[in-house]
Amino acid sequence: MDASANALNWFEISVSDIARAKKFYEEVFSITMEETEMMGMKMAFFPYDMMGGKVGGGLVEGPYHKPSADGAKIYLNGNPDLDIALGKVEAAGGKVTMPKMKISDDIGYMANFIDSEGNGMALHSNG
Questions:
Q1: How many other C-beta atoms are found inside a 10 Å radius of the C-beta of residue 107?
Q2: Which residue of 1, 27, 110, 113 has the fewest C-beta atoms within 10 A of its own C-beta?
Q3: What is the pTM (predicted TM-score) of this model?
Q4: Residues 6 or more apart from 104 whose CB is under 8 A from it?
Q5: How do residues 63-104 score in pLDDT, each as one tens digit?
Q6: Bridge pairing between strands 34-38 and 41-45
Q7: What are the residues facing 32 on neighbouring strands?
Q8: CATH code given to domain 10-125
Q9: CB within 8 Å of 117: residues ≥ 6 apart
Q10: What's 47's DSSP letter?
């Protein structure tokens, strides 16, 4: 792998109801997600600049996408303080499963939650 490349270049969060999931993530992160249909799938995209302009991704409702609390853990950008997004999770229809915890001074903080679709997700922030 090219040393300057990201280990992650795209992510998809499986959903069973695109409208509900889009509303959840828009509320938690105070963003607007663009929707489209592609290859028989409904998709809603996270704003590219939310991910630091390096990695893109979105929500996908389709025949090959099944939400899971036990799948791969995706850490979404919770900067400047993940408490802001984490504080909106339950009101938006999710559940906090691990409160904000300090990893280290150098790495920052993390927290885990279940989204509106039942996916196990995580947040990371420097503060």
A1: 10
A2: 1
A3: 0.88
A4: none
A5: 999 999 988 899 999 999 999 999 999 999 999 999 999 999
A6: antiparallel
A7: none
A8: 3.10.180.10
A9: 13, 14, 15, 16, 17, 20, 21, 24, 67
A10: P
